[in-house]
Fold these 3 entries.
Entry 1:
Amino acid sequence: MKFLYAIILGLQIIVVIGCGGSGSPTPTPTPIPTPTPVPTPTPVPTPTPIATPTPVASGEYLFEGNSLSSLNLATINTTTGAVGSTTLLTSQANDEAIYPGVALTPSKKFLYALFSSFTVVQGFQLSGPGLQLTQLHNSPFFLPASGPVNSMVLHPSGRFLYVVQSPETIQEFLTDDTTGDLTASSTLTPVVTADFRVAVIDPTGKFMYVTDLTGGRVFAYQINSSNGSLTVVPGSPFTISATAQPNIPVVDSTGHFLYVSLLSGLAGFAIDSSTGALTAITGSPFSTSSQAIFIAADPVGNFLYACTATNGLIDGFAIDPTSGVLTNVPGSPFATARFTGNIAVDPSGKFVYVSIETGSSIYGFSLNPLTGSLTPLTGSPFPSISNPSNLFMATF
C-alpha cells in the first residue's frame, strides 16, 4: 500500500515538472497602440476680394516718352487743346524711339510699354485719382527671342500683343483681361531676310502690315482670330523700291488704305478687304516737304499728316475716300520747329500735336474738320519733358 502511494506521488511530481519546468513561458500580448488623434482641420480663410481700383478721372491725356527710361503724362484741355504740365508716371518704361511703344487695352484697364533697355514689356494697371499706373505683379514680361525691340502693336480686340524685334522677329503675347498678364505665344520669322521696324493692324483686326526698312518692302500677314497667329498674305512682301526705306505705316480708320512714310515722300496702298493684299494707289509715292519722320491719320479717315525731321514742317493731306489719293490741304505745310520727334491726332479729331526733341516742347494745332487745315493753338508750343520722342493719346 505504501509502495503504491509512493508511485502515485512520484508521477504527480513528474507531471508538475513536465508541465511547467521545461516549457517556454507564454508570451505577453503586445499592447494595442492608442490611435493618434486626427487633427482638427484648419479652416480655409475666405479669399480677400480684389479691390476695385478707383476709376481714372474722365478726360483726355497725352503720354510722353523719351530716352530717360520714363513715361510721363499731361492732361489736355478738351475745349482749348492746351497741354498741361507733365507728371512722371513711371521710370520703368523706356519708350526712347519714335516708334510706337505704348498700348492701351480696349477696356482701358491695362497699359503696356516697351522697356527697350532690358528687352522687356512692362505692364501696368490704370487707376485714379487722376491717372496713375501700378506695375502688374508678374511684370516685366520677357521676350523669348533675342534681339533689340523696335515697336509693338495691340490687336483691336485687346487679346493679342505683338512686339517687333530686330532684325526680323514678331513675338506674339496673349493678354489676360482679368489680370493684365502677358503669355508668350507664337514667334514669327520670315523665310527671307528682312529689317522689321513697325507693325500696324487694320481696324477689323484681320491683317497686319510690317515695314522692312532697308529692304524697301512691306510684309503682310493675316491674323488668326482665335489665337492671333500670323499667316503670310498672298503676294507678300510688297516691294516699294530698294532705296525707299519704308518706316512708319498707318491704316486709315476705314481700313481701306495703308500709308507708309519713306525716305522721300509717302507710299499709298489700297487694301483688299478679303485677302489683305496691297495695290499701289495711283500717284504713289506722294511728295512731302522733306523726309517724313512720322505720320498720323485723323480718327474719321479724312486726313493724313506727316511731320518732317529737318525743316520742322507738317504736311497735311486729304484722303480721297474712293481712290485713297492724297492731295494737300489748304495752307499745307504748317510750321513747327526743327527736329520733330512724333505727331499725334487726338481721339476726338479736334487737335494735332507734334513733339520737338531738341526744344523739349510740344506744338499744338486745331484741326478744321472740313478742310483739314491746321491753326496753332493759343499758348503753343507747350513745355514738355526733356527730349520728347514719342506721343500717345487716350480719352477716358
Entry 2:
Amino acid sequence: MQKLKVIFHIGTEKTGTTSIQNFIRANRDLIKNQGTTTSPGIIGNQNNFELVLAVEDTPGADLAAHRNKSKIDFKEQFIQDTQRLISEDEAVTTILYSSEHLSSRLVTEESIQSLKKLFPVNTDFEIIVYLKRQEQLYLGYFAEAMKAGIPYNKIVKMNDIMARERYGAAYYDYSNLLARWEKVFGLKAIKVRVFDTSFFYQNDLISDFIQSINLDPKNLKVDFKESNPSLSPECLFYLNDICDKFSTLPRHKVISILEQVDYFKKGSFFTDDQLASFVSGFDDSNNRVFERYTGKPNPFLFKKSTMRYVNVSEIAESKTVYDKIVSIFSRLHN
C-alpha cells in the first residue's frame, strides 16, 4: 500500500457539517472507487464522534454517555477500525473523517496530539475547516442549546461566553483554534474555507467540499437539501412548551415538525449592533487567520450581518405567537 493520507474535516459547527456527512454517507462506495475510504463509525454514527472519545477523557456529558452505555474501549476499537480500513483494499490511499466535534471538543494541543498518535507515524494529514463570522457561530450555539432544552435565560450570553473552556475562547478565536492544529500537523496541512455561498466553488457547499479534497465529482450525488435547518426565534422560545403540550412525541420529532411549519422568518434575539460588537472583537484574530492560511484579506470585514431582531420580552408577553405555533403544529401533527 502507498503512504497513508488522513483528511480531517473538523467543522466548525453549524457550517453545513450534517449536509457534508450526508454526502459522504450517500457516496461512500463511489468515493472509495477514487481511492478514499470513509469510516461509518465504530457505533454507526456518521459524525465520527468516536474520534473524540478515543482521545479525550472529558468529551462532554453527551458523548461520555455513549462511552458509559456502550462500555467500548474507543481508543482500542478505533485503532482496529483504522487498521481494517487500511488493509481491506490496497487501492485505498486516503481515509476521510468528518466531525465537527474535533474543533469544539479537542481544546488542547495535547488532545490533538493524541489524535495524531492513533495513526501510523508516516501518515500525511490534511485539515479542512470551514469558518463563519463569530456572531453567526454564537447564534448557532444559542439555537442548538435551546433545541437541547436549555431555557433562554440559562444559556451563556455573548458577554460571558469567552470565559468557558468549551465553546469559549478556544472555539471562537480562530487564530487560537488553528494554532493548536498547526502545532501538531504543520501549516501546510491546514486548509481554511469560508462558509459563505458567495465563496463556495460553484456557489455550492458540497461542490466546494468535493473540490477541497480533490475528488472527481463525476457520478457523485451532490444534490442535498439543507440539513439541521435553523428555527425562528419564536419557535425556539416556545419549543419546550410545545414539547410539554405534545408530550407523547419525542423531542426530535417535535423539532422536525416545527422545521416544516415554521413560517416565521429567520431572526435573532440580539440586535445588529450587539452582533457587530461581538464579532469586531475578533477582527485582529481573523486578520491573522486569513493572512496566514489563505494569503488573502479577512472576508468577514466586508460582510455585515443583518438579522430580524426579535425582542424576547415581547414574545414572552404575547400568547398570540404561541397560539399560532400550536395551531399550525396541531394541523400537521394530526
Entry 3:
Amino acid sequence: MRLFEQGEIIDRREALENIGWPAGWRRLTLGFMADRDVLDVIEREIADEVRIRFPGDAVQRVRLLQHGDHPMIEPGDLWVRLLLAGDPADHERILRAFQDAHEQAIEPFVGFLRETLAEIRIVEFMCGEEPIGREGHGPRFSRVVSTRLADVAEWEQGATTPVVAELGPAGLDTLDTLIRAGFAATRPQAIRWAVDRIRDRPAYQRLLDLQRETAALKDEF
C-alpha cells in the first residue's frame, strides 16, 4: 500500500499512523482492497475529525465499512457510518435533532471525506448500534460522498440506462467474483459483461431468429 507526499513514495501503514490529515497531504487512494489494519488507522483519524466537527456526545461511534460488511458495498468501495447516541425506538426525533443541530457541519464533513479518500462512496448517520452484516437497514439518513469515475463517464456519454435489479447473496457474490477477477469495475459493469456474453452465444442468436419468425407468422394472419 503506497501513499504519495510531494512526489515521494511513503509506506502507507507507517504514514497513516503519524498523520492528522494535514492540509499538505494529497488525496489518498487505497486501491482495490484495503488491509483491515490500515482501515482501522483511517477509521480512528475520521473519528477524531468527527469529534471536532460534531462536538459533544451526539455521535456514539464511527465505523469505516468495506466490502463484506454490508451487501450494498461493492468491492473496492468504502462507507463511513456514524452511530448516533440514543434509543433507536426514538430514531425519528434523534435523527431530526442531529440534522437541525449540525446542518452547517454535515456538508463540509462530506467534503472532507471526499478529499481524504477516493474510495469513500457514502456517509450514513444512523441511530443506535446495528450488527454489521447482511441483515438490512436500520433508521438512518445518508449523503453521497463520491461517484466512480467509470460511472460518471458512462452517464455523461449517455451509454447506459439505469435499471433496478434486486439480487440475493448468490447473485451479489457472482457479480463481486467478476469484479475481483478483473472482468468489471462495478456491479453494473459486471451485469453488462454477463449480458454481453449471453448476446454472443449462438443460442441467443437462435432466440432472435425464432422471435423474427414468430413475428412474421403473426403478420400472415
